[in-house]
Design brief:
The protein has 257 residues and is an alpha/beta fold. It has a single domain, classed as 3-Layer(aba) Sandwich (Rossmann fold). The protein is built from nine helices and ten strands. Helix 1 packs across helix 6 and helix 7 runs parallel beside helix 9. The model has no long low-confidence stretch (mean pLDDT 93).
Amino acid sequence: MRIAVAGGTGWIGSLVVREVRERGHAPVVLARSKGVDLLTGTGLDEALHGVTRVIDVSNTAALSLKRALAFFETATPNLLRAGQKAGVEHHVTLSIVGSDRIATGYYTAKHRQETLVHDSPVPSTVLRATQFHEFAAQILARTDTGPVKLVPRMRCQPVAGSEVASALVDRALAEAVGSAPDLAGPQVLEMTDMVRRLRRATKQRAFVIPLRLPGAAGKAMAEGELLPEEDGPRGSVTFDAWVEERAAASAGATPAR
């Protein structure tokens, strides 16, 4: 089966592509480096020829509402129209738990993307996931603030990216359900604590400073609006286990089992 992965060269997209390939299917990467531009539609029709499933993990680095909306309100309809034309049987989109409860830029734009997918005639599923374990590593890797790492106050239930990739492929191979149950990790944690644990385990020099984001959105994040409200699938990889593997990899060792 040919399964297209929009944003397949990105971090989560690469995991999805690997998962598709390991299950014996043929991944079709939709990315500008592959001659496909979601914003202009260039190369979409050709790339989707013979594709029966689409997994959309395309993304933008923009956090402002205007710029994030501009991306999703252009890329998502282009992908859906091309998919309908190609006869795609199932379109799966990755979104964020709490996107309908955090009224700020990027989250609002992701919620708008969900609406576009639901309103399309293409059979679809939106899978919301919580923050990834890897988000802590992304914060530590930022260089624009030097050794000082400003970490948003955020109660979350982080999940391993590999488990998200597996869940997306599971969804793509199944029937469309519209809105899938939220996917989350096994534990509720505070993002500041996550970053500090990873910093210690990987022996990085950094000053971790908690930052309460302003306004209602910051209050909602700090008080748990990014947590799932109902039962649903839960990942099995704990953050501590993920940190152990990360630390072992950075040291060139094999983590204990």
